[in-house]
Design brief:
Number of domains: 2
Bound molecules: S-adenosylmethionine
InterPro entries: Methyltransf_25, SAM-dependent_MTases_sf
Protein name: Methyltransferase domain-containing protein
Low-confidence stretches: none
Strand content: 5-15%
CATH class of the largest domain: Alpha Beta
Pfam family, one: Methyltransf_25
CATH architecture of the largest domain: 3-Layer(aba) Sandwich
Structural class: alpha/beta
Number of strands: 7
Mean pLDDT: 92
CATH topology of the largest domain: Rossmann fold
Domain Methyltransferase: 49-129
Length: 303
């Protein structure tokens, strides 16, 4: 999901999504909430906080008990910010449609936080963070980890969809479905070949691609139970839906930070004040995120 239009569409369709932050059973992952609750102090009555790429406000909701005197969410999507205002009525919002963060605004805050967000603005936005912070302020972020747990899951999902695209699964399915009306014998033969080709690739299918494969099997094997127009509409609708999911999943893979991105971010003038470590979840072997922090000391500018 590279573009602002994609994000707007996403937030329009999923106004309260916390999709990245759920277990396979749909429950939210408490480790993230614990992370924020442990890393944000309690004496924040006099402090201000800004959440970069805040989405619908998952982060403010996870540390809603902290008494900040000013909370601001920044995002590129108007729809996300509308959801944030609904979910966190005492928060203000900033619409930011570029990869450049508004330095003059960021300088006002004691805490700058981000959860799977700032990496969408690019490595330079993170690297430049120290120059946009006031003395004594803190930056804390959880960012996508290349080759980590979330990344691996989405990479597999992406590859499943790519396998469908490579074999022209949608175009072929539409051609075959059209034969139902014109040449039922040819339909039977082609549908059988098509389904057995899909079966040879069974180890590729997961998530969206698996739903398609299961759905088309059901439709092609029991086509007499369905209206022809419904079969065509289902295939076209699925293709469109998978195109959107593909862009979103690809963007997550693209923005995930590699070890060399992290080196780039933390090298240079401010290298001493960066803190970085992999963030792990209970029962997961691979890291789910980079835990990335910067404390702007009073003497950072003189370093
Ligand atoms: C994966 S979501 C995370 C949302 C939120 N932090 C959360 O924890 O639910 C990434 C967010 O980045 C936002 N985003 C992408 N590009 C952006 C940009 N250039 N400026 C600001 N926000 C951006 C999207 O609109 C989206 O809300």
């Amino acid at each position: 999901m590279g573009t602002i239009d994609d994000w707007n569409q996403y937030w329009k369709e999923n106004p309260d999504s916390k999709v990245l932050f759920t277990e396979d059973n749909g429950k939210s992952i408490s480790d993230f909430e614990q992370f924020w609750s442990q890393n944000i102090p309690n004496d924040t009555e006099m402090q201000s906080v800004i959440d970069i790429a805040c989405g619908a406000g998952a982060l403010f909701q996870s540390f809603g008990d902290k008494p900040f005197n000013r909370k601001v969410g920044l995002d590129c999507s108007t729809d996300a910010l509308n959801s944030l205002k609904k979910n966190v009525p005492d928060a203000q919002v900033i619409l930011n449609k570029t990869s450049n963060l508004p330095k003059e605004k960021l300088l006002e805050f004691d805490f700058i936080v981000s959860q799977f967000g700032i990496e969408y603005l690019g490595v330079d936005a993170i690297k430049n963070m120290p120059t946009m912070m006031k003395e004594g302020s803190k930056f804390i972020a959880l960012c996508h980890y290349k080759d980590g747990h979330i990344y691996s899951r989405y990479k597999r999902e992406k590859e499943g969809m790519e396998s469908l695209f490579e074999i022209h699964a949608f175009e072929n399915a539409l051609q075959i479905a059209n034969l139902v009306a014109t040449d039922p014998n040819a339909y039977e033969k082609r549908a059988k070949q098509y389904l057995s080709h899909l079966s040879t690739l069974d180890n590729k299918w997961c998530a969206g691609s698996l739903h398609f494969v299961n759905g088309i099997k059901q439709l092609f094997l029991s086509y007499k139970q369905y209206a022809h127009s419904d079969i065509l509409a289902w295939i076209k609708g699925f293709e469109q839906q998978l195109g959107t999911i593909y862009r979103r999943v690809s963007a997550i893979c693209d923005v995930a930070l590699s070890t060399s991105d992290i080196k780039q971010i933390t090298s240079g003038k401010y290298s001493d004040s960066w803190g970085v470590r992999p963030f792990l979840l209970k029962n997961k072997e691979l890291p789910v995120a980079w835990d990335l922090r910067f404390n702007k000391r009073v003497n950072n500018e003189k370093a």
